User: What shape does this take?
Amino acid sequence: MSKTIIGGHDRRPGIWVYGILIAVLLGSAFPIWWSFLIGSQDASALNKNGMMWIPGGNFIANAATVIDSIPFWNALGNSIIVSSAVSLSVVVFSTLAGYAFAKLKFRGREGLLIFVIATMAVPTQLGIVPLFIIMARLGWTGSLWAVIAPAMVTAFGVFWMTQYLRDALPDELIEAVRMDGASMIRSFWHIGLPAARPAAAMLALFTFIGTWTNFFWPFIVLGPGNPTLPVALQQLQAAFYVDYSLVLAGVVLSIIPLILVFVVLGKQLVAGIMQGAVKG
Amino acid sequence: MTTAAAEVTARSIRRIALSHRLSRWDVRFSPYLYISPFFLLFGLVGLFPLLYTAWVSVHDWNLIGGQGDFVGLENFATVLGQPYFWTSLRNTFSIFLLSSIPQVIAAIAIAAVLDFNLRGKTFWRMGVLLPYVVAPVAVALIFNDLFGDRYGLINSGIMSLGLEPIRWHVDVLPSHIAIATMVNFRWTGYNALIFLAAMQAVPRDYYEAAIIDGANRLRTFWSITVPLLRPIIIFVILTSTIGGLQIFDEARMFDNVGQGGANRQWQTLTLYIYELGWGQRNFGRASAVAWLLFLIIIVIAIINFMITRRIAGSADRKLRTRAKGIS
Assistant: This one.
């Protein structure tokens, strides 16, 4: 690691480099700041005075209106349930499969792994019509199961865990436990799972964010009665199209949870993306 | 005594044999058991629906009424005869190109800047990643306001320069630019980190050798960094193609109606699928469009792959001969 960190440029860069970076940073932070700026204004004041550059005092009042007019708490709860359930399930099934692909010998292993990787390029989103028909048959439309079930294990997750466990877990360790008479599942539980922990945490984090921000399928299958946060935001837009201070107050409410996650775990997110890029 | 002892041994031998067999099965079948959830799920909610789309597309099929008569290719013929299909196709490609090309270029440039020996590395890296945690729907609502036709911040800026305001929600190209901006906002930093990781994996000696040979920084960037980044560029372009051609969220949220504008100025193919299937309740036609889009994506992915592999191959060879020359 220490060798690769150095990169191509050893010298401390000039001031212009920081200038560019500050500009990029403003570009990524400004729209988020803007949502709070507008979301904290009083709509009538906004219309009268035009642009304002300091936050107003109306955020709490706007947020209260938003919470009253869309099923906000329901949506927040749904987003938490769906994202947590999907992350947990993806981690469990991907770690099991990754352990098998990385450490166990079985016929067809290479071919099956290539198949898993290839499925990442399949635009399965285009199967929504039959998927909707299936969910309707099962009576799952409008239910969180319809969002959770199809996402319970992903090709990316399997690939990610395979890559990690291949290097992180010495074969001798598994052999030693097996010699002691442990069954396959016991050796997975006592050796595989602990070794997989760092990559599993990363996978959970990315899956959580991906599920939390997902819109297309929840929008189609859940409908307005039992929404996740992005679906509720769409309802908010339909209701208050003209009153942007309310819409953006809703946006702020909806992005706070992941911004908090980012503040605490942003460093890990950066590391995860960069690790994945080098290995993948 | 002896017979009893013999019986005990016989029994334990049998037991050992049984546990032996069980453990052989365990070794043999456990791996398949562990990988089976993925294959089952992919089959049920991935592959099967995709293939079944073809079946639905050759039938009359209503959202409520269900399966009707077999109609052959009629749904395809109808859809291909509708102007909205072609507008959607045009919009999809236009938005895709406006988002993917500038995005890859900007991401490489940002990565090159992040690759300097910076103070506070983690801070800058986190800074570019921030938009990634904002949901596309939220991004769309924020940018909708910034791109407002009358009171939006961007048009205010344009007007303060004494220019005509741009009708972002009326004209075709401006609406595409606005939607592409939303996509770029969310993904540029993410991709920059992927490129940065690849840049940092380039062995330092390559740069040193080039600098000894008298190459400046820009030159080393073009002839060492970029060629070595090619595999990663291919990866990013491929994933962004598959995702970009299915763009839905940002276009859906660009106004409160969600049909892609009064004249479908920014209706994408997935938005069109939604309108056919859930607006007009015509699952047959929606499936026909889905299947067409599927074919388009496959063709583009293959073309993409072949082009980039050829470029990558030749660049790789060039670099390798050059590296040989250095050593």
Summary: The two ends of chain A are 16 Å apart (CA to CA). Residues 1-8 of chain A have pLDDT under 50 and may be disordered. DSSP finds 14 helices and no strands in chain A. The CA atoms of residues 111 and 117 of chain A lie 10 Å apart.
